[in-house]
Each structure stands twice: as C-alpha cells, then as structure tokens.
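#structure-requests
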Amino acid sequence: MPAVVSHRSLASEASPEDYGYYPDPLEHATGREKKMLLARLAGDDRYEPKVYYRAETSTKERPNLVPSHFPDRIVGCMCEPDSGHVNFMIIRKGVPKRCECGHWFKAIDADPESV
C-alpha cells in the first residue's frame, strides 16, 4: 500500500486584500469606551494616568500638590529613581501626608474644566 504524503504550505504573511483589514476599534466601541477613544483622538488625555514629578525637597508646610476631583486620591511614589517598587498611599484633600522616603504630598481641588 503506497504511503500518502501531503505537504502543508504555510503563509508567511496574510494579505489584507485576501483576508480583509483589521476593524477600527472606534467603529465597534460604544458608550464610555467610545467617549474615551474620541477624547484621546481630540487630544484630551483626562482618562490616561498622569505622571507628576515631585519636588527635590518637600516639607509638611510645602508638600507636593496633587490635583483631585474627589476627597481622596491614590498616589504612587517611586522613592528611589532606580527603584522597581512603587509606594502607594491614599492622600486626602487639605491633609499633608508623608511618604516612607520623607516626601510630603497633599491633594488639592482640581480645575473644574479638566473634567
């Protein structure tokens, strides 16, 4: 009985003309997700995490100010520049809080236009 040998050809690259193009996420998004995508395209990054650089030195009287629309805010402090660990803490409006590294943070009212 003769052996049947079949060869399978492998495509190295799929042609968009043959298989179609990837759909645009904006075409399928609805509700909150679509609002976020449209805002990002318009240059509004309010939904993206913000990076605030702390001052070289901070004290209880002159803390790093973090804008917030809410009474509390979660802040992450990278105590050492080459550290892989982020020290997270909850700060409250009007109450300065000290990080383990000695830097001070305080939440303040954010600009209402940034909502």
